[in-house]
Every structure is written in structure tokens, then in C-alpha cells.
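Researcher: Next sequence.
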Amino acid sequence: MTTTYDPKHPKYLDEADVRDELTRVYDLCHGCRLCFKFCTSFPSLFEMVDAHDDQDAGRLTPAQQDRVIDECFQCKLCYVNCPYIPALHEWQLDFPRLMLRAEAMRYSTGQKPIRQRITTQMLSRTDLLGKSATVAAPIANKMIGAPQGSIVRKAMATVTGVSSVRLLPPYAKQRFSTWFKKRTSAVAAKRQGKVTVFPTCLVEYQEVQIGKDLVQVYERNGIECSNTEAGCCGAPWLHSGDVEQFTKVAEKNVKILADEVRKGGDIVVPQPTCGYVLKKDYVDYVGGSDADLVAEHTFDAAEYLMKVHKAADTELDTNFTGTVPAKITYHTACHLRAQNIGFKSRDLMKLTGAKVTLVQQCSGIDGMWGLRAENEDISIPIAKKLAGMIEKAAGDVVTGDCNLANTAIAEQTGATPTHPIQLIARAYGIPET
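Model: Next structure:
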């Protein structure tokens, strides 16, 4: 049995070794039970172990072990909550990374069903899909915007494996990178920073307005912005177990982004899952000085602005003359909480004078996990729980950093959440374009 989270370790994909390690960790988790509330993986695990009189996790079958793996959607919150993590305890327990190891083992040994492999191929090629769909946006949007559960959506589900009952974000007619090239840069009286915007596939192809607002808010504060040729961060490949494809994507992006940092700037990411991948997963799966450099210089969009606000030699513009709501409901994305940077978006929005109420409940999306047809029975109830908490908070507006989580909120509440950067743009009086 090898306790390792290093994908380059010779035992990383060894099935017998992985299953022995699963038994060790499942036994520890069963004895602790601190993370019962985060997802269905833990209640399922506890129920299956409790069914044996001796409560021995070693009695679980491979299929039962795999059920726990399948129900994990990589929210990372159990890691944040765990008292037994590496560097802090001899048990060296990192449940999310063990689930990634187990997924990779199952993928490499051919244990993942062919249907799931096809879905992974469809969902993970986000740049290819995005480039095609933005060119034919009216047609693409008509298809994905068909009523949930309709014949069109069921046909799409049959071909792609994407749930027919989930709300899907539409594609933009103009990509963020196209807008960025055509725009006229603002001239700042005082330059307070320099960043490369890593737009993520969601902002590049779908929620372009987030990228526009980010650039305009940053330039208003004297922060010079450039764009990057780096593509999707690769999270859909990683979370589906295809380590080889993820590593190819990651190595390419690390080289491009490290070169950007060497030009004298930082990297800003407006989506939390992608920010987590750049800060954490590239270090694990690519490694080396370039990956470390990228991780060290990567910031969440609000995190960077609050750094400017707090620094002694820079100053954030707090003259908010535009629209400022009285009460904001802010959904704290799991992959931001997992970065352990604090609630920077909340702190930023509070500068407007608004009252901000936090809603700390997972949306059950994890990138593409919650959009896969085989996961809808688990993911939708999680989204409904979040919707109930959003409605109870009764804010004038709803904000959240994760656009896919925002889509789940829209699906369940009918509200239209916005990114915190968009709220700040409107508070400055910057109009949508």
C-alpha cells in the first residue's frame, strides 16, 4: 500500500495498490465522520461499512469502493475540513486527491464504461466546442436552449451524455479574445499593476461580459491587462481520470503562462475551478520551476484587487457612483474556499457599502460533473438545497464567482446571478457592452 498523490509515482496507477489505499482511507474516514455533510460519498461509505458487524472497510467490494469515487465531485471541502492532511498529520490523508488517483487508475485500466468515456471526450474538448459553437451561436444556442427534458435535449443527451434536464449556459456571438483585440485600452494616470487575463473557456466562449467587465474594472484602477493564448485549464480531463490528456494541456499552458509572468506581471483568473487548477494541480501534475512560478503569480480576480487595495503603495478606486444594491447574496464557490484565500469577493463588494450575506453551500456542479446525465440524480438535489438557501437570504441581487454554479442557481431559482466583478463594474457606472 502506497500513500502517494504524485501522478509520476510508479505505483500511482497500480490497481491493487490504489484499492489498498482506498481501504486505509475509507477506514479512517469511517472512524472520523467529520465530513458527512459535504457530499453523498461519505454517507454512502458509512452506510456500506456499517452494514458489516465488524465495521471493516476492507470488506467493501471494488464496486462499493467505486460508488464512493463516483459520488465525489471534487468540491475539495473535505480537505479543508480534514484534521489529518499531509504535512499536518502522520496519516497523510487527502481525500480529493485520492479520488483523482482512483479515477485515473480506473480510466487507465479500462474500468470506466465506454459511455462515460465518450461523454468525457465530448465535454472535455471545450476549446474545440467553443470555437465551433461561437461561430454558429444562433444554431448552437437554439439546441442547448431547448426546453429541459424536451426531445431535442434527450437526443443531445443520447449523443453527448450531457443531462437533458440541466440548464446549460449559452454561447456568445463574439469571443472574449476577439473583443480584447478590437478594444481600445484605457490610459491610466498611474500604473498600479500588470496582469495577464486567463479568461477560462467559460469567459472566452460563453460569459464574455465577465471578461469585459474585469478588464474595464482593472484598467480603471491602473492595472494593465493583456490576454493569453493559453486554452482551457484541462479540469474536465483531470476530473474524469484522463491524466495523459490533462498533462498535455497543462504542460502547454504552463509554458505559455510562465513566459507571461517573466514579462513582469501576474495571472488573473475569473473562474475558481480554473484558478485552483493553475495554483494547485499544475504543480502536482507538471511540476518544475515553471509550474511553481505560475502558481505563485496566479490570483483570483477579486483577490488581486484586494491586494491592490491593501498594499501600501497602491490604491483601489472606491468612488462608486453607479448602481449599488442594498443587500447582496454571495454564493461562496467551493473551489475558492479550497484555495484558502479568504472571502475576497465579499470584501471587495463590501467596499461599495452594500450588506453582503454569504451562502456557503456547494452547487454540485464541479465543472462538468453535475452536467453529466449519470450524475443528475445526485447533483440536482444539491443544487436545490443551494437554491433554498439563496431564496432564504433574500438579497436584492445574487452573485457568485463560479459561472456554472450560477447557472445551477438560475436553473433552480429563476434568478440571474452575476459575477462579483460585474457588480463592481455596475457600481462604478461602467455599462454592459
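Model: The CA atoms of residues 27 and 57 lie 5 Å apart. The chain has four domains: 15-108, 114-160, 176-310, 327-428.
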